[in-house]
Amino acid sequence: MKKMRFAVASTDGANVDIHFGKAERFLIFDPSEQYCPLRLI
Predict the structure, then answer these.
(1) DSSP labels, 1-40
(2) Are 26 and 19 in contact (CB under 8 A)?
(3) Distance CA 9, CA 17 (A)
(4) Could you give the CA distance from residue 5 to residue 22 in angstroms, rounded to a whole number?
(5) Is residue 39 within 8 Å of 28, Cβ to Cβ?
(6) What is the pLDDT of residue 37?
(7) Strand, coil or helix: what is 41?
(8) For residues 7-11, average pLDDT
(9) Which end of the chain is more exposed for a tag (fewer CB within 10 A), N or C?
(10) Could you report the per-residue pLDDT of 11-38, keeping only the tens digit for each?
C-alpha cells in the first residue's frame, strides 16, 4: 500500500485558514491507522 500524505495551509500552525497560493507555511500530515503525526514546513 502506498503512503498517503496531505497538506493544509495555515497562518498560525493551528488553523486551516489561508489559500495555498498565499501561504508562507504548510502543515503536512502523515496519517496511519493509529495516529497522524504533523510536520510544519
Answers:
(1) -----EEEE-SSSS---S-GGG-S-EEEE---SS---EEE
(2) no
(3) 7
(4) 21
(5) yes
(6) 64
(7) coil
(8) 91
(9) N
(10) 988 889 999 999 988 888 877 766 666 6
Sorted by where each begins, the domain ranges of the chain are 6-40
Q: Which grid coordinates are listed for 35?
A: 495516529
Residue of 5 and 19 predicted with greater confidence: 19
Note the pTM of the prediction, 2 decimals: 0.61
Q: How far apart are CA 1 and CA 17, in angstroms?
A: 31
Q: Which amino acid is it at 3?
A: K
**CA proximity to 38, closest of 29, 13, 12, 6:** 29
Task: For CA atoms 9, 11, 13, 16, give the dihedral sign.
Answer: negative
